[in-house]
Amino acid sequence: MILKMAAVRRMMKLYGLGFHAIRQQTSLRASRVPQQRAFHVNGAQRQQPFDSSVEKPQFPGASAEFVDQLEFIKPNVISGIPIYRVMDRQGQIIRPTEDPQLSKDTVLNFYQKMTLLNTMDRILYESQRQGRISFYMTNYGEEGTHIGSAAALNPNDLVFGQYREAGVLMFRGFPLDLFMAQCYANADDLGKGRQMPVHYGSRDLNFVTISSPLATQLPQAAGAAYALKRENSNRAVICYFGEGAASEGDAHAGFNFAATLECPLIFFCRNNGYAISTPTNEQYRGDGIAARGPGYGMMSIRVDGNDVFAVYNATKEARRRAVAENQPFLIEAMTYRIGHHSTSDDSSAYRSVDEVNYWDKQDHPISRLRHYMTAHGWWGEDEERAWRKQSRKLVMEAFERAERRLKPHPDLMFTDVYEEMNPGLQKQKESMWRHIQQYKEHYPLDLYDK
Amino acid sequence: YAVIHRNSCPSVKASLGAATHFFQPIRSPLTSVSLVTFGVTLLKLFPSCTFKPKTQKRHAAHFTFHPDPVPTKYGSTMKMNLFQSVTSALDNTLSSDPTAVIFGEDVAFGGVFRCTVGLRDKYGKDRVFNTPLCEQGIVGFGIGAAVGGATAIAEIQFADYIFPAFDQIVNEAAKYRYRSGNLYDCGNLTIRAPWGCVGHGSLYHSQSPEAFFAHCPGIKVVVPRGPIQAKGLLLSCIADRNPCIFFEPKILYRAAVEQVPTEPYLIPLSQAEVLQEGSDLTVVAWGTQVHVMREVAAMAQEKLGVSCEVIDLQTILPWDIETVCKSVVKTGRLLISHEAPVTGGFAAEISSTVQEECFLNLEAPITRVCGYDTPFPHIFEPFYIPDKWKCFDAVKRMINY
Q1: Is this complex scored with an ipTM above 0.90?
Q2: Do B132 and A247 make contact, defined as CB atoms within 8 angstroms?
Q3: Which EC main class describes this enzyme (chain B) (predicted)?
Q4: B232: DSSP letter
Q5: Domain-located, residue A73
Q6: What CATH code would you report for B273-399?
Q7: How much is the pLDDT for B7?
Q8: Is the CB of residue B373 less than 8 Å from the CB of residue A425?
Q9: Which end of chain B is more exposed for a tag (fewer CB within 10 A), N or C?
């Protein structure tokens, strides 16, 4: 037993990974009974029995061996965590066994969702430019990470997003009308017009409403996953974030809580190269985000985020094991933010046009999937033309409807602060209305629901 | 974060004037040009979409910026908006203090509000640099830099995002000197953060969190009303031997243009400024709201014949009790206004102190016109903010009390 563990440990050391051998054993045990989601109070069964007779370290904080040579561990023991992909840039399957073998309908749905998202982005980006909405953030270049991961989940898995995951919501069936309603903050907005554009949320689609502060969702996702685990409901949680957000203190808390409390959770990092203007080499010095997983005792993988099948496979397997084994998984999807950070940003101030062009023209998740579809004879110029026309029409019609709609009733400013209206707030609301009645001409009441 | 800044408010943009050379073109020669063209074409293809959108009137600012007279005592001046005057203060500091460093998210390329434009190139990337995206890290690092002997100027991208650093500010920065018996301090730390409403910033790009920090002895909290004050007060914060938080009204970054002295100068902290003398009613505000109150004072004079004394508090902590109380003793009425929610806002503190100090002088209840006790809402902002009509109405009620 000790020998075997030593061997495992040597192997881990070789790869610079600090897995706990015991975690492996727990995993194996759990995977034999995948349906039974054992609920452990963490810790007790992990601790090795104390035995002072063995000449090995007894420190409670680490299970390792003594060495007698001074040697620092290098930050990158290997040349970098490899990037898993299924398709090459031309959409060719590299290893047939990795082909997820999705049906034509499924793949066409992937493509249509990715391109519909792209079309919606273009329209809403432009409408912000024209002053029709106050703000927008596009998803250009990251469509593969959204659709690939969303497709690998169960519909009742709970999503905690950051703010650039509209595709996940779209894949789950969030209608264009509701996207538009949110961005226009009109009376149909599920969020009641309170948040800036792109802060979507849907109770029906298990998509927790977006909040602007970064990385706050990570520890929350761990908590949610813990609650789902206790319910034994065969649900997982997925938590999206960027490589910039991963620098926040909350990211550390989220990773550590999820690992120690054994939460069925997928941390999905969209590493798109930039946090507004800050490039990754000013964001971190280790091997990306995936390299942090082992430090937290977490299963981790890096995938090509522009390969929708690679994202799908990795998320699917992580999801299966997260639920079966009650442990978090970390997926780092390498991708590129082709658009500006937001409509308030001009990225030409900090990156070159050539760089952006490369990703837009040479390595785009949409074109890669299209190559795949074309190669299978599933998609041609005619289909493309017809779909483009149809998708633009869908988006424009929704856009028009949203624009015509009134804003929510101003009373909604005061509700949901607490579940119940309190007397103080009630008084403030009444005082506001008394004031507005008296100074009507100075308030844009005609734009709001009566 | 969903940053909102450039071109966020066309009316503000229009008043840029000399600022334009600081300012990157909005349409970049990126691939997005083709995306933009696509969108335009599409909007044109659907002529029915040319109707007037039912969007909020976000372009109509709720205030008119009142520039200060050109200062004469600090030498030559230049036309600057608020972000440029901040840059100018930082530039002066970097040039005179070799230990000074400036850091935060995205500051290297000039900052999302352009406050650090050109400074990295001028002073080197070891003095003006990006940090990883972590507010608690930025402030903790700043405290450490100050303890280590540097002049640390930390930028938090939005005041709304300062809360991860709350522990570092409240438990560390504010108590460093006291807990060590003055063996150590981080007085050389200044934290800058864009603050206040901007027309469409909603929950997380609009907050005015000064009251949270006003409850924290050991730090100073400052809010300027325009470019001239911004530079003088920021330089005072940097020079001050206590950790300071400097909140910059982001709606004024471009909207506020004044003739600002190019040389360094100090405007004293903890000193309120009487902007307009009056005899009937004292109004106290800070930041953007000062301009709302100036307009209210003019309306009160014109429509009610009421003479208002307008005070810009400038420093929230420790605040200038004397100036405010002296004024209230004279006028007998006090109106305080801020954007932050009324309950527990800093107006409450002022009100309480003035009531204690000037009880017998009061002719009407001290009145607060502030944000409602809700998060800062998006589409309801025109109803939420303590605009001039609400303040004017309060003046009327106070006079008729």
Answers
A1: no
A2: yes
A3: oxidoreductase
A4: H
A5: no
A6: 3.40.50.920
A7: 38
A8: yes
A9: C
